[in-house]
Amino acid sequence: MRNVAHLLGGIAAMGLAAPVAAQSTAPNQPSAPPQSASATRASANPQTVPPDAARDGGIADIVVTAQKRSENLQSTPLAITALNADTIKDKGIASAADLTAIAPSVSVTISPASATNMQLFIRGIGDVDPILTSDSPVGLYVDGVILGRASGSAFDILDLERIEVLRGPQGTLYGRNTIGGAVNLITVKPSQDFHAELDAGGGNLGFYQVRTSVDTGDIAKSGLTARFTYLHKQRNGFVDDPDSRDNRDPGAYVLDAVRAALRFRRGPLTLDYGFDYSDRSGYAAAFQLTAVRPDVLAYLQASPKLGGGTPNVSPNRLDRVFLNQGVMTDRVMGHTVTADLDLGGVTLRSLTGFRQWRNRNAGDDLGGNANLVGFTVSPAILAPPNPFLPLGVTPLTLFATQNVRRQHQFSQEFNILGRVGDHFDYVIGGYYFSEHSYERNPQNFLLALPSPVAIPLTPTLQINSFGVQLGSLYDYDHFNESKAGFVQGTYKVTSTLSVTGGVRYTDDSKRLEQRAPLTRTLNASFNRVNYSASIDWQATPTTLLYARTATGYKAGGFNARSVNSGYKPEALTSYEAGLKTDLFDRRLRLNLASFYATHTDLQLQQLQAGTGGASSITVNAGKARYWGLEAEITARPVDGVTVGSNIGYTNRKYLQFLILDPTTNRIVDVKDTARFQVGATTTISAFAQWDIAQLAIGKLSARLDYDYRGRIYFNPTTVGTPYNEVISGAPRSLFNARVALADIDLHGAKAELAVWGKNVFDQKYRLYGIDFGGLGFAGNTYAEPATYGIDFRIKL
Predict the structure, then answer these.
(1) Which percentage of the chain shows pLDDT scores above 90?
(2) Quick check: pTM over 0.85?
(3) Which domains does the chain have, with CATH numbers?
């Protein structure tokens, strides 16, 4: 009830708007005359239906392509949030890592091992495991091409025109691994006219960036247009490591990225080619110890008396942490080719994608302490006859990891989009996806063991524990292939009532070739039929009511860290009802959704520590149900002022959570105490945009954003992870602000000057947590502190 009260209080306190407020005409696209919501809502060709313009100071429409067709957002019978280019710029969104708070029930976090390892959750559903054999249940797409791995997906994407967030299962049109939803990042297409733009900025922590883009316009009247963009940005770290320079402190990075987009239009044919490349070098956020078992802490506290450093343990963010970290590099490359052939009433579409990611982590310190020393013995003590072979006082590594990872993928999709008469629209498609991933991941860690007798080290120091330095290695290749066919149709029963139905068949096959820590080859295949059905009623020209049911599935497979032979797919069935309406002559927009979902065969990673030893396995050991409410509200109470809020509440409950009880060596059901990971129960965001005045030199405006996220957990139970409560992320509230002077006339060029701040009140909150329960400690990484800066943009 506390969360419900908080939700209702948030509605009362913030009660207004969603991020879709602002101007909706896409960059480089002409605007169209206003249309009513009951006008024809779909077109097979997304380039031929520009969004409606705002009329009489009302809230503008935005066009989305969530159902493979161009549709008015307010006429699309889905729980979908869309952000246009202006909102993306105002909120400072550069990559998928910035998606938190853009829509109800969306949570994003970054894992410690890499700045590009992202966990994206929608309606409480997502995955935290960065292993390359694990699929995310939320699909992330760039221009319709899925990113096969969550690891490496948080790279900077240049020239974002629109972001669409689809909440709930999208198994019919988007396929497997979208049981939580799907996010499509859509880039700007080349303009018919010549444009050039330069964007430069700087800020605290040594931040600066330079971004430039050029549109060629129609080249020699050939129908060929092109757009080229380059970005460089860098920043020092936000936690001081005394052993490193500022540009090597935790959180520091240097990024170079390029993008090229080509478009050829001739008659009924439109060809789009996109290329992107990103090269990032940086250092992981600082991992610090939050909790340590008393005997392990006593062992580590001997370090300064032996000539080493003092252990740092704190439940709060530290500004100074000694670490031993190497550089991390991420190189991402992508090619996308989209072809549309309009045959008059029928459109043929081909979408081809190739993507590649390479990652090298030269060393990540997940012990939060460098310069520690301690008395250690040979690992031989752990195997019969258990000899005690002292190694003396040596440097200690609590937990450190290195990594070399590679992934490349190819996908091909064909669509036939058409209309039969005036009443029936359809989409028919075929899909193919193949992927190869590789990882080599050595790890080193410390096991502190009690000594049966005190060990004298100096005349004044004796210890009751000794350390054993151990290592492990994960080395494997993973192959993944998926094929699917789907069909969806919408029948207009009357001028205001429509029904939609779709079905998809998917066939998956996977292979794991593992060399360490054990040698094995595993093969598995799965197939599944998913469906969706909805009914929508355009009750008035500005009010849509809809109900929808849909299914989705997350593919089965293997966990390279798991000793078992694999796991089955997950399945989810969702029921949803929604309302979309514009009121008071489009001065108020209200979108509501409610949902109920059942989730079976949850893939749960468990540490099974019993009388026969300990091992990590992934098993289908869970069932869950979810219900929730979501609201998006936008208002323009007076000209020049737009305010808004989106609010999400998800009530989650395990119906089954089976795990091995280490005290009894029996499987028990801990459904009543198990936690859901990362996804917050309650999310609230709000904003206020004020066009203050039209001055002689330009247009002055200000924007304030607020983002609330409830408590999050990083592990499901305390079995094997005893510090789960201690390292959990407390509720947090963030404020971002931006003041801009736009439309500055510089001899025909248009310029904009803006000052901005993120997390302006310096909220210190936990970004991620790892519980090394078996080793006796746990810790967290923390999010960025307050950052601020200035941007200058000029466009010809």
Answers:
(1) 76
(2) yes
(3) 2-178+185-795 (2.40.170.20)
